[in-house]
Each structure stands twice: as structure tokens, then as C-alpha cells.
């Protein structure tokens, strides 16, 4: 298996995470990039062995897309930052200072009460439509790029918002989802085959466990009992004397 195959599979997995969150996910799970590459390599090997006879037809892909296409739609997103303060008077002062030319990141670090974004200069990253509370969502998706907002009230306080970029929503098509759907259907069909495949490999393998901690995971097979010996000719069951072998009277 080539490094290019592993990199391609990793890129597919990374696409499911928000930008910049991959490293945080690995750290939270105690994983390194090398760990991920090994897991992907093992998975691809199993996929190729188990899935050799799994075929996904265009009709299956089309049917899945027709039923689930909305799940592949990409919602509109904005990249934004904000400064959260507890009262309107402070919000109005921050707004005025920013519009007078003060640095947004500096103002956020000095004034924001949002612990999640304050030390990052107010950066929130990409925000999907409907992700935030209604008042914030309405403001951030109507504000022109680069403009400093008026104070926006929410249950958390007052926000001064600046949209840095905007990405329009995208409707899924069969063309741009075919590969993803094919992989998904392949995984669904392969999943019930993996455990029997591994069990068959284990039953045929000569596994030697040197570490006693893992002996329970690979128990020795039960010894096969020896076949019962056939009774000698003329012998009766249970050791009884056969009438044919008895002396004649």
C-alpha cells in the first residue's frame, strides 16, 4: 500500500472536521499522525481483503443519494470574530473605538468576556447558519464583510461582530457526492464481514503470546479428543463376552 493511498484516505477523514480542529481532535484522543497512518493502513488492508467481492452499483448510489441528498448539502458559512461585553454602554464604547481605528484583536483581549475566543483576538472561526443563538445568527449572516456591527444583544451579553469572509451554501449533486456515497455503502456492506474474516484468520494462525497480559485475548484452542478405538472382533460392548466367543456347551 502506497503512502499516497494513506494520505488520500486521511484527507477524506479530515474533510469531516471543521478547519483547524484536526490537531485538537488528535490531541484530545492521545493520537499522533503516525498512529492515524497505522490505523488507516490496517483499515485499508482489511477493506481490500474483505471487500474484494463487494460491488457497489450506480443504481445503489443513485438510490442512496435520492433518499439522503440533504445530508450532503453544505450550509452557508461565515468566518467571523466578536467581542462580548456585559452591558450596552461598554459595547457602544468598543464599537466607537473600533470604528475609530483601534485593533480588533487587542480590543478583544482587553474587553471580551468570552473565554473561548478572547485570547484568540475574538476569532470564532467558521460558523454555519443556525449554529449560534438567533440574534447573533441573524446579525452575522446579514452583516457585510469587514463592517463593524452595532451592539447585538444575546442571552450572554452584547456582541460587537465583524465578518471576515463568507462562503455561500452548496447543494449536493450526484457528481460531487458519488465517491463519498460509494465509500459509505462499501463500509456498510463490509462491516458484517470483518469479524468473521478476522476470526477465520485467527483460527488458522499459529499465534504465540509472550506477554501474559494478552493471553486471554488469544486462548489456546481446545484439544481434540482422541477417536475411540474400535472393539476387537468378537468383543461385545461394555466388555461383555460375545456369545459367539463362549465355549460351546
Q: What can you see in these coordinates?
A:
With 249 residues, the protein is α+β, with helices and mostly antiparallel strands. The chain has 8 helices and 4 strands, in the order ααααβααβαββα. It has helices at residues 3-14, 22-28, 33-50, 58-68, 88-99, 104-111, 134-140, 174-204, and strands at residues 77-85, 123-128, 152-154, 157-167. The protein has a 4-stranded antiparallel β-sheet with strand order 2-1-4-3, sandwiched between helices. Residues 233-249 have low confidence and may be disordered.
Summarize the structure.
This protein has 249 residues and is α+β, with helices and mostly antiparallel strands. It has helices spanning 3-14, 22-28, 33-50, 58-68, 88-99, 104-111, 134-140, 174-204; strands at 77-85, 123-128, 152-154, 157-167. It has eight helices and four strands.
Main beta-sheet annotation: 4 strands, antiparallel
Low-confidence stretches: 233-249
Order of helices and strands: HHHHEHHEHEEH
Overall average pLDDT: 81
What does the radius of gyration come to?
Answer: 34 Å
Can you count the beta strands? 4
Terminal residue distance: 84 Å
Helix-and-strand structural type: alpha+beta
Overall morphology: elongated
What does the secondary structure layout of this molecule look like, with pairings?
Elements: H1 3-14, H2 22-28, H3 33-50, H4 58-68, E1 77-85, H5 88-99, H6 104-111, E2 123-128, H7 134-140, E3 152-154, E4 157-167, H8 174-204
Antiparallel strand pairs: 1-2, 1-4, 3-4
